[in-house]
Amino acid sequence: xxxxxxSIVLAVLLALGLFFGNNxxxxxxxxxxxxxxxxxxxGLVALGIVLVYKGTRVxxxxxxxxxxxxxxxxxxxxxxxxxxxxGVIIAIAGTLxxxxxxxxxxxxxxxxAPRINVLVATIAITLALIGLEILIFRIEPQSLRPLxxxxxxxxxxxxxxxxxxxxxxxxxxxxxxFAALGGLLAWFFSRTDLGLAVxxxxxxxxxxxxxxxxxxxxxRFIWGVSAVLGAVAGILYIPLTGTLIxxxxxxxxxxxxxxxxxxxxxxxxxxxxxxxxxIGVVQSxxxxxxxxxxxxxxxxxxxxFGVEHVMIFxxxxxxxxxxxxxxxxxxx
Amino acid sequence: xxxxxxxxxxxxxPEAARWRPDTRGWGVRVAAIAVLVGIVSWRLATLEGLWADxxxxxxxxxxxxxxxxxxxxxxxxxxxxxxxFVGLAAFVAAQHVTERAGCLxxxxxxxxxxxxxxxxxxxxxxxxxxxxxxxxxxxxxxKGLYLALITLTYGFVAVNSIFEIPSLTRGGAGMPAPRxxxxxxxxxxxxxxxxxxxxxxxxxxxFLASRIGRAVLAIKNSxxxxxxxxxxxxxxxxxxxxxxxxxxxxxxxxxxxxxxxxVANDFRFESxxxxxxxxxxxxxxxxxxxxxxxxxxxxxxxxxxxxxxLSDLLSKLDRDPEEFTLLIGPGLALLTMIKFPxxxxxxxxxxxxxxxxxxxxxxxDGKSRHKAGLLSRVRGNSTPPPEEST
Amino acid sequence: MIAVVLAMLLVAVACGQKxxxxxxxxxxxxLPAGAVIDPETGAVIDPETGAxxxxxxxxxxxxxxxxxxxxxxxGGDTGGSDAPGDPxxxxxxxxxxxxxxxxxxxxxxxxxxxxxITGAAPVPSASFQKGKDLFWNYLRSQKLSINGxxxxxxxxxxxxxxxxxxxxxxxxxxxxxxxxxVGVAGTDQIQACAKYAASVGVPYISAGVTEIGLETLPNYFxxxxxxxxxxxxxxxxxxxxxxxxxxxxxxxxxxxxxFRDGHDSFVSAMGDKGASVDYDKPVAKxxxxxxxxxxxxELNQRGIENVHILTSPTFxxxxxxxxxxxxxRPQWVGYGLTKGLDTVANVACKxxxxxxxxxxxxxxxxxxxxxxxxxxxxGSGGTDDIMFGLxxxxxxxxxxxxxxxxxxxxxxxxxxxxNSKPYKTGVNPDVAFNGGHLGGTSMHLLRADCANNRFVTxxxxxxxx
Lengths: 332, 390, 465
Prior knowledge:
The structure holds 3 protein chains of 3 kinds. Chain A is mainly α.
């Protein structure tokens, strides 16, 4: 119920920021836009994290690496000369199979173990996936094709300019995909029997077992969907960075995505959406403020390293200490 | 080991009811330990090439393992940011010797003054205690799994911000950390590291056997119950975190002087995750298992190098043994969790039990495995834990 | 594998036994370093520049053609001359005799190279492994040798990490007993390893990079221009060729004290040329894509037109990508080394053309032009620019190892190289130590050609622009 309110407040704040930032030289506007765009990717990964948490009450630290693996699948397909769309389908399918296999081999045997065991298991999965990537592809950066290039054939920018920042087509696609998937999942959990069953499983696995809903089936479903979400995020995000390297999603996206999920209270899909935008903007504006200060007509380069990470840490700490249930969640 | 399942109540194990070996039995045990110690010391004394350095690394890993073991095994929480604690301590140790005590290698200083070295190690331990204490305060307010998230994020902040402060770390070039004259050779340094590990093991043992240690375990099993027994949950948890921080700080100092240069790149989030897994593989809460597991994780690439056919195969494939660490480590951890709960400690329990003066039996508890989860297994605290008899 | 080792051993033994053959293969004993006899005129010439050389001193008779850009097709050390010479090498009364001969046997010299093949800025492992032996294999195939000795190369990965670099170098010194160490990429690693080498008295040949803490080391030999020396060269390029004087210029560099001299020399050189550095930004060495985005946005916002980039190639690609995402395409320039590699162009150009026309100084010409500078390279199986760079380095090292003559020891190696004639090898810029430790004299200039996913040589052997 609170989702619309928070969204409206957020939108008003953003609008105010953009309005007042408009006339400032080297102002934050471009960074706000950038933050919103990054937030879309954070939100997409956060969706997967929230989904696994909703279904199994587990923090899935492997969510980021699903993206890197998906991107590497696509890279392999493209290297072997397959058309792009086929490569995307194979990459998503491959990650889906991987997610299902991991669920069967690792998660299912631990289904009755303490939650912290499963958390450690997802860490092990993350590291194993990173290890596999390093072993096969080495740490040399590779190039992954975007859905649409940032420059058109003539070498001119193909994107559109929003608030002083040119946004390339790939980012706009990411935003659209993110909104579509978020809406789809929200609909799924609130309107379909399966979705409600998944939620029921997460509330009390023993009770649902008694009632007759198969816990393994739910677990399989959830891990499959989150693997697909991860792969989509990887395929959309990695071309934006220009470098496909092992662990890229874990080191760049996982923590902001978790922070986004926490802001949303870990269980709220719209919360993950808003959390993603918030984290994206906070991080980006933090980078702007850490980058330079303007005093009078003199611009100082303030050297604070890793401002982007500090901002997330602070947000995470404040939210967890002050409001552990998140801005939108019902319970911690 | 008569206590089968861990309980919250202070257990009483009547001495009379326990089986004890006779004089000859003790003799055999002492002799076995003596032979073992003898062989190991002889091997250590005759190490060649860089093996002394490798052993130092393994010992440092073991101390890191013990540090994580306090948080994971005793308090039952997860720290994914241990690389930040170890790294901060390493930089503090290095910075004290070079920048503050003035032993600058670029000005021809080859050996640190012994006094400055001692102070540096103490400062490193202090930095570990402070950082970990702060984490403990946060941990007390944040429930369960969220601590994993906070520590992971803190790790990224430390690596990207704190470790980039030029006066502390000299940016990417790294802070030199010259050793003192006494430990200049790798062999001597290794002895120093082993001694430090011994101290840590002793402190860990005494800690767990103390009131605080028992209280911490009680809190882990059930916080409300412990609180109802008038256990000061907050203070004891904090103490456990600070002990962990002290170990991490010591490990950091040893880390710095081992390579005599510290760089931010040494502390990646992958290492922190790997350290958690090595404790799991060793066996949570079990000192001997954790030490063995950690050492295995550290030495694994070098052991592959020893197995010539394997290393030949790898070089033919153009692969470095180290690249397999991130595959083998998690693999072992998953195997441990799914098939062999209790880790290495569980596998060597018949042996450690025998050393501690019990009958040799394959199933010391009279039960087979699969009886407890990863973290629910707590040592019985009626008797000194078996492995301390060495 | 074993077969290769056996073959190498056989060749080594063969070379060692046939001293006469090796000594007759000229260019190695009698003539000035790198010089050949022109088969038509009989004159002693520099094979690359075609310049006439003084047969005794090796000095270029016509100074106007020094470091010229008119390479002849002639190869490096293949000239078949039987000029008489002293096979025992130079005889300098002031030179030390005897000394430390670790790593030198009657038939082989063992040298050690460290480089990152993993870590934040790795060089492709396969080309490196092949490239490090390419020139020495070629010598063997031509029945040439270093005063009767064969060169064996051992390699260790430094993981782009200074502390690992020290370990790698220690392994090569203590376990492999190499004669000298070579560092070809990674400033912090080179600095750490060179200091270690100095502490154990091992000669260290390095790829220029920083001067801080290195230029005074007695065992240190930089065979390329250091970053501090490249600063004025790059300012020249920016102002005189790219019109940077009236434009906004930026400088993005990794926050490491070893880049300090390279940073300061560039900024002051720009000032001397009347150009300003309007955006001067240190970046954490651990920075990733999110930092790259923020910096690209700032650069874009301030309308910086030329950006000097002194970071790892990976961060450079991320920054260039983040810039092109915003439709922002500055002129990228930078010091020599890893950013000018074809692999960088391949990744950054393939899907986004983000670094098109980026210009980097380099210590070797682009691979595509390699035949112009040394046709033997491709003939010996060289297939990329990393191998070409290693080929160039190996040629310099060969000259340096030859300098003390047959009686090779670490002390004599250091003495004779400090006081050597310039080494002209045609691939690597000429090297002249003149009693100091920084031997670089000029640089090549590469330009990213994104239409073909590669770098091309825009200018060669440049001392100014």
